[in-house]
Task: structure prediction
Amino acid sequence: MAKLKEEGVKVGLAVIIVGDDPASRVYVNNKKKACEEIGIYSEEYALPSEATEQEVIDIINTLNERDDISGILVQLPLPKHINETNIINAISYKKDVDAFHPVNVGKIMTGDFDFLPCTPAGVMELIKESGVSVEGKECVVIGRSNIVGKPQAMLLLHQNGTVTICHSKTKNLKEVTKRADILVAAVGRPKFVTADMVKEGAVVIDVGINRTEEGKLVGDVDFENVKDTAYAITPVPGGVGPMTIAMLMKNTVKAARLLANK
Ligand code: NAD
Result:
């Protein structure tokens, strides 16, 4: 960061949050804290849940023009009366540090990308850290959302994995997941992945963040039972979540460099 400052590169992240969803509030606070820790300037726009789509777009338009803001993030989900696609499309793709804009999604498909979506990129880092190469491996992703499942599958494919995407209509799920050398769970259901669904020695990455009735954070994987079957497994909390934030910081710095042609 000091080097960037010396070079006159301005690194700034603007985060827009609409409404008072407690989980979104926690995520936004964690993102702001990470910015403070590494010296990225950050700004928050906290709008009430009644805010209109146009109000959000007006803020985005201003931020798109500012040269001290390199990254713009709108915390999802948005209240139902605001169209998520319109909001994502309003963000300049050059400042789209979540990599949700169709230009960035297209670039990810072709492999010629500037930014990767934070959660799938964090998962790839974790797989790399486990020392396991993706090439030629059976990779199974459970979940096909635009923000996790689909881009995750694409990133595994870019690294030459043989990729299967499972979803709510998949038949015989267990038979498919049992084949996986690398299993990524992004379902949003506590303890969805049980030990009998996991191949001995698999790398298991748990993207899920679920809150139990007692208020405890748990993933999509039954960690206690799967950990003995897996070669490597990520915990919740403390696995993919922090990596997502680290990748957001990386994207914000990268956006600043690209905007400054450095
Ligand atoms: P989503 O609800 O958009 O998608 C869930 C997916 O699970 C869907 O594609 C659906 O087809 C699939 N699914 C549902 N039931 C299924 C079943 N019975 N069998 C197979 N597939 C099934 O959710 P999302 O936004 O992709 O998020 C998934 C989870 O990851 C959530 O818990 C979310 O909170 C978490 N998440 C974590 C991070 C992070 O930083 N760790 C980031 C984003 C999302």
